[in-house]
Amino acid sequence: MASIKKNTRILFTIAGIVCVLASQVFWLQNACQITRRHLIIEAKDCFAPAYKKEQTYRVPFLNIINSGAVTIESCGTEEVQIIRFCPEPDTVFYSNVTGLSIENFLNRVFVDLREQITPINIDCLADLYSGMLFDKDIKANFVVERFNTTTGEILDSSLHPDKIQPKEDPEMTIVMDISETESLRAVLQIPPGVIFRRMSVTFFFSTLLTVMIIACICFLYAFGIKKNTTDKSNPLNENGASRTFAIGRYTFNPARNELCGFGEVIQLNKKENAILFMLCSQYGNVVERSVLLEENWGKTGIIYTRSLDTYITKLRKHLKKEPSVQILTIKGAGYKLIEN
Questions:
Q1: Which of 161, 196, 231 is the last residue of a domain?
Q2: Which distant-in-sequence residues (6+ apart) come within 8 Å of 256 by Cβ?
């Protein structure tokens, strides 16, 4: 019975530790995914501002105006026409016939004017984007590409020959239209180390909490073993009240470790008390050696078999004044307490 209880405690302890570790792994996986998504969102939010800065650095707005006479003519409440007068035949007409709002139409025209004066500098855009990522403490690998939206042909790229093209992932790819036929694309690759560094504080406290929980489980297991051992050294009945046994003209009080008789009180040690209690509890029946060993020395009791013989001999000496009481050795089985 004690062995079954001990095995049950071990199984519950192991199951508790496994559950705690599994919960920790599951939680960290979710936390890693959430952190990765936040990093991707932050990285994507930097791309449009970087492109606007590149536009400003490429050709200031005043240079566009001064490079040719630009006039804006209203053709009604919704239609606007922008004319850039340049030496013939370079005069350009822009008419808002597509139904765009005035603000979007003006932005589209001035982007096109910048492109005509000076093509986009893809390396400058990549540097600006890299700086914005650095400001947000995001160390990501990326490549910026300008491509034809119709054919998919890459027109320009910031990738240098000595660098490896990041693997394209729809979740980590940013696409932005810059004209009716061209778009910009940034392909990101965030190393795992960046994610772990971002969640380092969370990981530390989560690990600390896990260690504390496992330590508590181990403490409860050790406390249960200690309590069980203590209970064995001070035998009580099922109701918790102390019991006494009459052994011939002796009186045995296991709660006080005392064997009284013939005008003397013999103080038993813990092992003697526990062995005699088991023999009295199974009076007239054989108590197996293996049970006595396991209950008093644990599963390693096999190496204490000689000690058990020594304690049995001592108990026989304590009871020698009462010839009717005997502790019999049942060969190959164990011991039995009888009274003739």
A1: 196
A2: 242
